[in-house]
Amino acid sequence: MSKIFVNRVWVDGQILHAVSTTGEEACYNLQCFRGFKHASKEQINDFQIVGNKSVYWPELDEDINLEGMFYDNHLCALSPSEDTVVYCGES
Description:
mainly beta, three-stranded antiparallel β-sheet, 7 strands, 13% helix, 37% strand
């Protein structure tokens, strides 16, 4: 199974976007997740990448796995180690 390298992650309003180096884009509407329903714009925009695998919101104590996000967007299969999709940084 080949890896997908994500080089950009951002939030646009309530939508989390992640795009790979080959142009595949996965999106999540954060309002579909209970932990984001009452979050402020500042809280939603305050995230970090953890372990090159997850997007984490420290103030909300919420995280989203990049592989799960790409899987839910039908862009990859799930792997036992959840390392098919990895963040490689902005380019």
